[in-house]
Amino acid sequence: MQKNKMKKVIKKFISKKNYSAIMRWKNIFFNDYAIKSYSQEGEDMILRRLFETKKNGFYIDVGAHHPKRFSNTYYFYKIGWRGINIDAMPGSMKLFNKIRPRDINLEEAVSDKIEKLTYHIFNEPALSGFSEELITKRDGKNDYHVIDTIDLKAKTLSEILERYILNEQDIDFLNVDAEGFDYRVLAGNDWQKFHPKVILFEELNSVLLDKYISPSRKLLEINGYIPYAKTVNTVFFIDKNYYNKLIKNKLNEKESKSCKRSISR
């Protein structure tokens, strides 16, 4: 009813030609069959499939960058989840605090040890980071360049989580996008204490079942994770026990549906 009323109001104020153009645009970009993704490569839609029945989940996002742009967590925030957003960019959490007040928003540099690091700030903020190798490759390429540097004191991920996570808090997924520094972030976690069900991290120029096993993959496999999925630049690892639980639940669902069909016949 409200949709029909809105259409009538719009028709009163615009021409038929403009109304038709607006409706075409609406049907292309906003329709009842589409779900909006905020991720750069649709990572949030893969996560949505994994956690489709979870209403009140918890995430950690290291290298969060922006509360909405390229965010693998904002979709979940919108449906009632909460979590911790971490980014080293000075001033980055002002917008997070405004748009995502339910989250814990931290301006922190994260590494595998407590140390002083030089943070390189690009004219495209999403490229800013600590990896000297990646910075050298990107600086001056495709109109991207370093506009400033700042020295920051880094903490380990486990040190940060010790402060902000209660013992009974489950972590549904950990997202790491630290621009070439992902392994260092992962290596600074206490996997016995903080063990997310799913982990996403950036890995450029690779495939899911790559013969070359990167340090990040080795670290996760040692700690009970298996490769699950991949977008262009993001790899998903899933805890073995959680994966087995998912498979078991899916099989039980199929058996239940099969029994219902047999009974109805």
The main sheet orders its strands as 3-2-1-7-8-10-9
User: How large is the radius of gyration?
Assistant: 22 Å
Amount of helix: 25-40%
End-to-end C-alpha gap? 39 Å
Labels describing this entry:
265 residues, seven-stranded mixed beta sheet, three-stranded mixed beta sheet
Tell me what the structure shows.
This protein is an alpha/beta fold and 265 residues long. It has a domain at 38-109 and 157-264: Rossmann fold. The chain is built from ten helices and ten strands. The protein is globular and about 65 Å long.
Mind sketching the topology for me?
Elements: H1 2-13, H2 16-29, H3 43-50, E1 58-62, H4 74-78, E2 82-87, H5 93-99, E3 104-107, E4 109-111, E5 115-122, H6 132-138, E6 146-156, H7 157-164, E7 173-176, H8 182-187, E8 198-202, H9 215-222, E9 225-230, E10 234-239, H10 240-264
Parallel strand pairs: 1-2, 1-7, 2-3, 4-6, 7-8
Antiparallel strand pairs: 5-6, 8-10, 9-10
